[in-house]
Each structure stands twice: as structure tokens, then as C-alpha cells.
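Q: Hi! First time doing this. I have a protein sequence and I read that you can turn it into a structure. Is that right? Here it is:
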Amino acid sequence: MVPPKSYKELGDKIELTYQCFMCNKDNVIVVDKVKYNRFLAGAFAQNVWPELSSGDREVLISGTHNECWNEMWPDEDEIINDLDSEIDGEGGYTA
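A: Yes, that's right. Below is the predicted 3D structure, encoded as C-alpha cells:
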């Protein structure tokens, strides 16, 4: 887990800003303070915030926003399609 770039209390919620290490863009997310403290104590993000998207949870874990995460870890089908496009008619690679 990476620490946020900034932390702003908003009553029972907190606004966290993370900087994506891939593109340096800021990601801002507002979460419940009690839940955030559970996360800091070691609870898994998916257990603390089942209501958040996996992309939002990844921001809280690594600071990486969804677009850069997907670029680093493309879908398995996408990888297979890319590899298939490099195979020539005789079963060899064209790369």
C-alpha cells in the first residue's frame, strides 16, 4: 500500500489524493474514515469496500488509476489476440 499524496478530513469521510506512478496524474477518492482505518490496520480492500469498483480499490492499494493498471496488466484474451496476430501462415512468429 502506498501512502496518499494528501489526506483531507471531511467529517466522517476523508478525501485521499494519490499520484499514479505511471502517468503522474492525481487520483482523488473519498472514503469513510472508519473503513479507511480498517484498511490501514490490514484488512483487504475488497472486504472493506465491496461497493467500490476494482479500479477505485486499486487506487487505494497502489495509487495506480484504472487506465494505467489495464495498460500494465492487459486482459488475458487481449494478450492471446496480440500473439495470434504475430503468427504467420506457417505457425511461426512474424516479429
